Known about the structure:
The structure holds two protein chains of two kinds.
Chain A: H1 7-22, H2 33-61, H3 90-117, H4 123-148, H5 167-222
Chain B: H1 2-21, E1 29-35, E2 40-46, H2 49-53, E3 57-66, E4 71-81, E5 89-94, E6 104-112, E7 125-127, E8 139-141, E9 146-148, E10 153-158, E11 165-171, E12 176-181, E13 184-189, E14 199-206, E15 217-225, E16 235-238, E17 243-249, E18 263-268, E19 273-274, E20 280-281, E21 284-290, E22 296-304, E23 309-317, E24 328-334, E25 339-344, E26 352-359, E27 365-371, E28 377-382, E29 390-399, E30 413-416, E31 426-435, E32 438-447, E33 459-466, E34 474-478, E35 484-489, E36 494-501, E37 510-514, H3 517-525, E38 531-534, E39 541-544, E40 553-559, E41 569-574, E42 580-583, E43 593-602, E44 605-615, E45 629-632, E46 637-640, E47 654-663, E48 674-677, E49 683-689, E50 696-699, E51 707-716, E52 727-730, H4 735-757, H5 759-766, E53 784-786, E54 789-791, H6 807-821, H7 824-834, E55 836-839, E56 842-845, H8 861-871, H9 887-891, H10 903-914, H11 927-933
Amino acid sequence: MRCNARPLGVLAAVAEGLLLLCAVPANASRSAQPSYLQQTHSLVRHMAEDAQELFVFYETNQRLNVNKICRSSKWLEGLPRGDVADPLAPGALQDLYGAMEHVERALQTILQHQRELNAPGAELLRRLTATHLKVRGLLNNLEGLLRAWGIAPLRVALPQKPAVTKVFQQKLEGCKVLWSYSRFMSKLSTALDAKGLRERQEKRRQRRGSRRGPRGDKRARRS
Amino acid sequence: MNRFVFLAVLISLRTAYSYQESLVFPVTYLSVSKDLPLQRLLVEWDVGKSAHDAELSMSFEIQVSRTEENTIVWTEFHNVTLDKSGEPLHWNWDSDLPLECMSHSVRIRSKAETSKIWSQWSLWETVLGLDASNNGGLQIFPDEKVVEEGFDITLCCIGRKGQIIKEFFLSPTAHNFSRTNSQIGLLTVKNVAHQEVPQITVYCQASCKEEEKEKCYSRTVFFVGKPPDTPNDFSCQTQDMKTVICTWSRGGDTYLYGRHSTKYTLFEEFSQNLIPCTVSCSEQCSCSWDINQQRVYNITLTVENPLRKKTAMDVFDVTHRIYPSVPFQLWEECTDTEITLYWKYRNKGFELFCQTEVLHPDGKAELHNSSGVQLQYASITLGGLQPYTEYTVRVRCGAAKHFWRWSEWSEARTIRTEEATPSGKLDIWREITPVLGGRNVTLFWKLAPSFRANGRSVSYEITWEKVEGDSKPEHISVSSVYNSTRISIDNCPYKISIVAKNNVNYSLPSVVIIPGATGTEKELSSSELKDDRVNGTDDGIFISWESRNTYDGYIIDWCNFPTSQPCDLQWKRFGPHTSSALVSSVSFVPGVRYNFHIYGSVANTASLLEKKTGYLKELPPLLDPTVEQVQLTFHAVTLSWDSYPTNESQPGFVRGYHVYVSPVQEDCNLKESKKHVLPGGSVLCKYRIENPEEKRYTVKNLMPNTKYKLVVKAYTGGGETPIVNFIYIETPFNSNVLYLLVLLVIVPLVVAALCHWKMKWVKECCCPVIPSPNKSKVLSFKQITIGSEKVLKVSDCVPDALAVDNKSEAQKLHLWSHMSSTPTEDKINVHNSSWTYPNQNGERDFASTLKPITHNWFENFAYSSHVAVQSDPYQNSEPSETSKPHLSAVLYQPQYYIDILNEDAVSAHRQSTGTKSSLRYISQTDVHCLGRRL
């Protein structure tokens, strides 16, 4: 029998992700956008942590933690490299949607490969499935946001890549994908955090401004 | 002539034989190829046609060498008989090292069986390994091989020419033997074990140029797994004669998944067709397919993975493999003692044999068989059941003809039989309490083992009437929830009957006769019967009584909770020939005293015969006796614990007491006591009192003015509790001892002090320094008295000795006498510094007794000499001149002079010093006395 070290942890993570997804209606109306964005932001933050954990687990589990072979500078095809100030802004949302579609496809491939190598119900398969679900959930959310902005989500034509047949190469490819994905999600989460911070600061400034406003007027009148 | 012919034939034969022995058939053709998937060398060779034509039996010695290692890694002898077909010969060799890793060479030599000579070796025929080529980058072999757990694997990493293998290792790490020979790295893992990851990754790194970095690394994996288990329980069956399902156990985990996972195929041997079924495995694997007209099958199941192939077979006739479907839609008809059960089944076309299981309320299961007919439904009638009782029934069926296997059990159905008249009698008992003008009778009843209520709601009807006379019976009805009731009757004898009633009818009555008041009084007075003690056992409390012929049975009653009210009265009936019983109850607990009454019963009338009391198990008393009174004398202490109870409140029969005594500071050792050692090792004196009513004890032989600790412990049949707390007493001081002390110590001390104070007087009186001549014999001569003095005439005495000192000596003496007479204090100082008298209490200055007064010296040689001898131990260890062995010098040492305050002595001294040539009187009397005083 194979011992699944953290089934409960994984289940909890899946449950958490699904809870967040449930809290976000797919067809959110324009009026519900602020909370909808906030929910997506929370989901991204959670997925960033999950992606990091999944990568570390995969790297160790697949015995690829040798010479940092997974941590290549090569970026997963389809993931935007540059920094985006507001990834959930209407302009950047389509790119993000496309990136996540790439990730979803890559995760599907990893899952397919790993099913060949692991016992059904293995911890790695559980984790990969959970992450795959979350990515699909985020895609759903992003689609909802796009529609809320009045943009029809553009389906990305994913390039047909030659199938990797060698087991080691499959494992290594998977590992590199997860590395890229974890870095991408981390950047995305950071960008959203920064945006949130900016917004809060702006609001505070506005509040202060509105409070100072009348006084300033008075001063102006006095002068 | 003949001899010559014979010799000629012999020679020719010999020549022919020698010719055969020397025949050799060298290998004429040798070809070696490799089967890489099987990692096998395929060797093909041939010898000359003549050997084939002669159909020779030949031996071939085949050698395999690895070029890289320059060693022959395999040698084998291959025997073969040639035939005329002239076909080349073949031999295969499986390599443990991947053939890609190194070049392999083969050579062969031959020998005809009749020949003694081996042929020459053929030339080495080589199949090249990748080490010989210079193409491609770094490569690892074997690539993605599946290795059986427990087996060995050898891997190699081959670089291009000039490349050096720097690293060649596994992850997860396994114990391996690796060696690298610049271009080739070899790594052997012995006894490969499955690890937590399904694959083991192999990493290889070689030196290379920076621009060819990608060619520096090579990685692959190999899989460690197990061959599949043989499906021993493979069998096929049908439920409906339309579909056959084969099942087998899945077996253990092979650790191989995906494309390496176990594959199953079913093949029918008679039709030579693969069975068109899809295998599904959970705990068991199964595969089903529709059958046609074929009745007999020979199915071969093949279970296969990359490591091994296992097979199992099942040959069967479908009609003998009927596994019926589960009976369904069960329904029933029932009476108070019978259930008729009906059910349906799907199987049609064959006769079924069914089995019905009836589960009784007591857990007992009964099986009833029934042969089903080919109807829409089947039924069975189950008889001999109890009224108003729940039974759980279920059914299963098997083929009546060629029984193969039971179907699964149907869904269980719980059925209750109809109600009926209560059967049997109630077991009743009573408790009589006399009250003013009559008696209260508490009636108890319980369901006897033979009694069955046989109905839903049972109530109890109680009827009582006077035994004599035509009184009208009285009647009450009690609900089923009660098992006792109280009635009041007068002092007449009464007959009480109790019946149980359900919705159908009444049970038979149970009767008890309450004797008249006189009888009751008699019974009550028997409460004065002595309580006999009974013993508890592990299983209950054993009670015995005297059997009497007059009774038709005995009853024992007792309270399960003697200290509670109501006390949960219990009773048990016994036959007329019983005289003992083990009474047990789940309510019995150790440390509780239970009282048992034994009654004799005749014609429903019970009489108290004996009373017993006992414990299931006696426990030590919960509380120690409280010592209420302590009477102390010098040598004894009296303890009393009158208030200590010895009744049923105790968790055991109090058998007596133990009194433990010990001095506080030491172990006890008193007379008439036993030793008791505490866990700490201290010893107590133990006294035993065997009468529980004796609650006073005097401990004797104590020491006065001593602190003692003591404790009184009660003990029961369960022993006593550990000693924890003591009481402390202190015996008073004995004043008689004080008086004795005063008498023996203080009085002598006072006398001694007085003596010391009046030392001079005492000395004078008892032991004068200079004995009074008047008290000695010295003056016991004829005397002339002049005034108060006695005068001795020289002529009247005979001196002991006469000595004449010369003049110079006398002068010296005189001078010394003058010197010493004036500075007296100086002399004292001398004494102080040199002559001390040591004793235990400190130093006492010998000279301190001397007083600074003018001394007159009385010179007495005998005394001086004696003093000198006596004083010797106290003398300064440094020898002085005065201590030289010169008699006269010794005698004249000033410290040996003793001052005498006697006036007589002074005058004598004056007389002696007044003459130039002095005559000395040497007294030989009283020396001893004086010496001793000093």
